Amino acid sequence: MFFSGTIVAALCMLAQGTPLSLNLQVHESRASVPKGFILQGPASSDMLLSLRIALAQNNVDGLIAALYEVSTPTSSLYGQHLSKAEVEQLISPTSETLDAVNDWLNAFDINSTVVSPAGDWLAISVSVGVANELLDTNFSVYTHQLSGQQIIRTLSYSIPTHLKGHVELVHPTITFSAAPFKSSLSATRVSLPDTLSSEPSACEQYVDPACLQALYGIPMTPATETSNQIGVTGYGEEWANEADLDQFLGEFRPDMSNNVTFVVDTIDGGENNQDPSWAGFEANLDTQYTAGIATDVPVTFLSVGEDNSDGLYGFLDTANYFLSLDNPPSVITTSYGIDEDDVSYALANTLCNAYAQLGARGTSILFSSGDGGVEGNGVNDACSDFGVSFPSSCPYVTSVGATTNFDPETAAYFSSGGFSNYWGIPSFQASAVASYLSYLGDTYAGLYNASGRGYPDVSTQGINFIIVADEQTWMVNGTSCSSPTFAGVIGLLNDRLVAAGKSTLGWMNPFLYSSASAFTDITSGDNPGCGTNGFSAIAGWDPVTGLGTPNFAALLTAVGL
């Protein structure tokens, strides 16, 4: 009765011409304009904004509890992943939340559209003037200095007091970021001998599938289970070229079928232009090394266009797209990231929980850890503290760092790693992180969050990867090489599991940290930045190479095969 009366009273005030400001309270704010952005001035009141409203999820604690149950090897429910309907039942907002939010929007004659499978995200289109009144704020125009990109954001916004507990956030509002960073440092044109296909790489001059197979014991045996798939995401008009994949496999995997390709899905106006000159280094790298490592595991390339209004470059739309599928890929790899502090905690947490939903359904989410060392994704030797790469910092994704050299492998200098400022140390890595912090002592005290989730979780090679783009051969570097490589390994493990009548790995982190012996520990190298040497790779887990690099035979044993 009190709740309903509160809404009626609020609506009466609006009908009398009084705004809701008396019943509003600040919901999210940031103290200042983020680094790299300049305030240009107020946004025109007539300009249209596409906003998203994240509604409070019904039982997110139940989702996370279920995620741990089905993902922890010692649990009696291990591997018993939830169905799409079961996840949505936990996540879908209550009727009270839906009624409260819709009454608020209706009072301003605003129509909303549901844009997520569980109904926890609404989209609205309003003018800046209406948005300013709705949220008691002032939207302004900001310019990103490096790219020149202009965005409309605010430093603070409010919602009616009675909507606390019903609205998680309104977005994009206080989240500032330009385009996401691609985790590939460089590309260099190279000429290879004509006899290349008959003389596989011995890991001496470059990395190719044969090198990785030898290094990590990855089998060449073709997969058999078509229900097990790998998803590769692409952003920013990065397109995967089919002819380049065919040439790559012909030169570096001549044993494979000539018919191997990838399926293309698109969202947000994405496409996959096959003009050779439009071949994307990132997209080609990711599709060539998932297909080239995971023999005959089906690969789907998701091209995410720029016609999105999720305010996060399509990351939200990507997660919701995969959640909408009855059978999403068993593993999804992404070689893009942004700085954690560019994203509001509420937004980051909501996206992270979307990855938890996918994990609970049996999908492994992989992200490259970034290429800025302890600076995260940035490059700024004057930084006052260490950066954090997101979504790698989310505990419900598996973050993949980079190594180099072969006998032994060492940490790649650019491999991003560190500790989240948003999430605490999860139980699955508590012992591993404690050991590293004991080694670190007071070194870098105050530059990082010693109570935060540590990343990366694992690593693979990340330097001198050979790819084909525009019908030419190139060498590329970056953790973008590492994530698709590890995705290929997991794709093959999942194939063996499904063939044996078992479930896919899903969210892997509890399994990985309980199976550290299935990885080759990397004990040398560091990831400098911010005018420091960065963190060092040591025996055991470290925030440069994680648990180390995979040993396929040992991983097979660890999964019970």
TrEMBL record:
Domain Peptidase S53 residue range list? 206-561
Cofactor-binding details, from the entry: Binds 1 Ca(2+) ion per subunit.
Task: Write out the entry's keywords from A to Z.
Answer: Calcium, Glycoprotein, Hydrolase, Metal-binding, Protease, Secreted, Serine protease, Signal, Virulence, Zymogen
- Name it: tripeptidyl-peptidase II
| Subcellular location(s) per record | Secreted, Extracellular space
Q: Name one GO cellular component term.
A: extracellular region
Q: Which residues form the signal peptide?
A: 1-17
